[in-house]
Design goal:
The complex is a heterodimer of chains A (148) and B (420). In chain A, a hairpin with a 4-residue loop joins strand 1 and strand 2. Chain A is built from five helices and four strands; from the N terminus they run ααβββαααβ. The chains are: A alpha+beta (148), B alpha/beta (420). Bound molecules: pyridoxal-5'-phosphate.
Chain lengths: 148, 420
């Protein structure tokens, strides 16, 4: 079961049980809805910027598996205080490392590193990237995105 | 702890010998013996079917219906022998009414496009049920868009049973076709198709039965059912992928124009216009999956040799055993509790998404399906994004059901275990 523990690290269970920044906020500047038709998971991401253009709060709601919920929860934490350009870089790094197409040092991901175990589970990669594709859509002003 | 549920004693069904006929059942996944419980998605293939495809390519391979040479004749004979086996399986009146397609999906699209597109008008209605597979929903949506006809849906209740009280209002003279799944892949429900077909005919509508799941579990007699169309896929009957069947009532098939054009489906081609071949070839344009079609015969022979009574008895015992274990499993809820359902156990677990269940079971060698099972409206009906589904075939054992529940306990332990 060592492989399973690679995938399901305690941090992931923690964020699945108690997702951070969960729920629809009163104020937001961007919203986007992500959908993974393969498993039926849906997620709505809300982003509010402060006066300086930094992410003041990112939040989400929806239904998903442990991997997609934890990924969304960790992502919203990591987005706080970032500029749009920095968020874009986070997306590129995360996506590249999960897909195994990037050779940046995984340490750049910080806490999000716990999700890189999903690399060994190709059937679950889309679970981990759903929130991120939704982020990408929100940054580009798209209302809806599908992982297919 | 609940009292352990006694494992039934295997009787009169040579399970070890049967399992030995299916090479894949002896393989391992993640270093564990494969426990294959995804039979509703596709069944495993017996040696006889695998050998038949190999034998075809080694000794019979030629194109069919188009060669004067002996090899082509032999290939044609083998393909047509399979058609006759399908005719007998369904008790169709004639092999002319048995059309080879790529699968159940293509069979339904054929009817929707050949019959529906040329017949339907604005104001006409197609009726289907809430428990259809996407393949018996989307082709009708497409043809409704093309013709202006309207799609109506028979609702289902909490247990996954059709709410027939709605038929009086839903089934009217506007209804031109009633499409119904014989056995639901998501819920296991067996629908009263004979009665539904009668009701359809009473208002002058045709009836199409999606037999994709039913074909492996119950004998089918299209004449006794009085079905206008009956479709299934060979791969869910222990046969090859890429081969499907459309049975159609002869008079309807005669009237229907070809759907695809090409070789084999014509009797005469001129640039001024072509003439169609007779049935069933009118609907079989191009070179089909000949090897697969030929090997379907062996799948049918295999199932017939076991007999549907023996198959049902064993599968029902497996389902009862699994259901009994599921009912005492804390936090597990069965989705689909229709009386007399087939050996499909769909379920959800408190706080654990089906996808996570599927991954963890997979690491234990247990293959189940998780997701919406190509039946999103069913998921929506029950307000869930997905289910986990274990579906049992005659080669499954009580020990494999134990393995399923041992693995499910591991899932719970991993998810709910003391977060130290
Ligand atoms: C009830 C039902 N109908 C239709 C289909 C479609 O079969 P195929 O994909 O072989 O065309 C399936 C397969 O999952 C099914 O379960």
């Amino acid at each position: 079961m060592s492989d399973l523990r690679e995938l399901y690290q305690e941090v992931i269970f923690d964020h699945n049980r108690n997702p951070r920044n969960f729920g629809r906020p009163a104020r937001y500047d961007r919203v986007s809805e992500g959908h993974n038709p393969l498993c039926g998971d849906r997620l709505t991401l809300y982003i509010a910027f402060d006066a300086a253009g930094l992410v003041e709060k990112a939040s989400f709601e929806g239904q998903g598996c442990a991997i997609s919920t934890a990924s969304a929860s960790l992502m919203t934490e990591a987005l706080k205080g970032k500029t749009e350009a920095e968020a874009e870089v986070m997306f590129q790094n995360f996506h590249g490392l999960i897909m195994g197409t990037s050779d940046v040092d995984p340490a750049v991901l910080g806490k999000l590193q716990v999700l890189t175990g999903v690399k060994e589970f190709p059937a679950r990669v889309k679970c981990a990237t759903l929130a991120w594709h939704t982020l990408q859509a929100a940054l580009h002003g798209e209302q809806q995105v599908s992982t297919e | 702890m609940n009292a352990p549920i006694p494992r039934p004693v295997q009787r009169a069904f040579e399970i070890d010998a049967i399992r030995a006929d299916f090479p894949i059942l002896a393989t391992t996944m993640h270093d564990r013996p494969l426990v294959y419980l995804d039979n509703a998605a596709t069944c495993q293939k017996p040696h006889a079917v695998i050998e038949a495809e190999k034998h075809y390519y080694e000794t019979l391979n030629a194109n069919i219906h188009r060669g004067v040479h002996l090899l082509s004749q032999q290939a044609t004979d083998a393909f047509e022998a399979s058609r006759e086996a399908v005719r007998a399986l369904l008790n169709a009146p004639s092999t002319q009414d048995v059309i080879f397609t790529r699968g159940a999906t293509e069979s339904i699209n054929l009817v929707a496009q050949s019959w529906g597109r040329n017949t339907l008008k604005p104001g006409d209605e197609i009726l289907i049920t809430h428990m259809e597979h996407h393949s018996n929903i989307v082709p009708w949506q497409l043809v409704c868009e093309q013709t202006g006809a309207t799609l109506k849906v028979v609702p289902i209740d909490e247990d996954g049973v059709l709410d027939l009280s709605t038929l009086d209002t839903l089934l009217t003279e506007r209804t031109k076709l009633f499409g119904m799944v014989h056995v639901s892949n998501a819920l296991g429900t067996v629908n009263p198709v004979a009665e539904l077909i009668q009701r359809a005919h009473a208002v002058g509508a045709l009836a199409l039965v999606d037999g994709a799941q039913a074909i492996a579990h119950t004998p089918v007699d299209v004449q006794a059912l009085d079905a206008d169309f009956y479709v299934f896929s060979a791969h869910k009957l222990y046969g090859p992928t890429g081969v499907g069947i459309l049975y159609g009532r002869h008079s309807l098939l005669e009237q229907m124009p070809p759907w695809q054009g090409g070789g084999d489906m014509i009797s005469l081609v001129r640039f001024s216009g072509s003439r169609w071949n007779h049935l069933p070839y009118k609907f079989e344009a191009g070179t089909p999956n000949i090897a697969g079609g030929v090997a379907l015969l062996n799948a049918i022979q295999y199932v017939n040799a076991l007999g549907f009574d023996a198959i049902a008895a064993h599968e029902n015992a497996l389902l009862d055993y699994a259901t009994a274990q599921a009912e005492v499993f804390a936090g597990l809820r069965i989705v689909g509790r229709a009386p007399g359902k087939v050996s499909i156990l769909s379920f959800v677990m408190d706080g654990i998404h089906p996808h996570d269940i599927g991954t963890i079971l997979d690491m234990e060698g247990v293959a189940i399906r998780t997701g919406h099972h190509c039946a999103m409206p069913v998921m929506e009906r029950y307000g869930i994004p997905a289910t986990a589904r274990a579906s049992f075939a005659f080669y499954n054992t009580f020990g494999e059901i134990d393995a399923l529940f041992v693995a499910l306990h591991k899932v719970v332990k991993l998810f709910k275990g003391p977060a130290s």
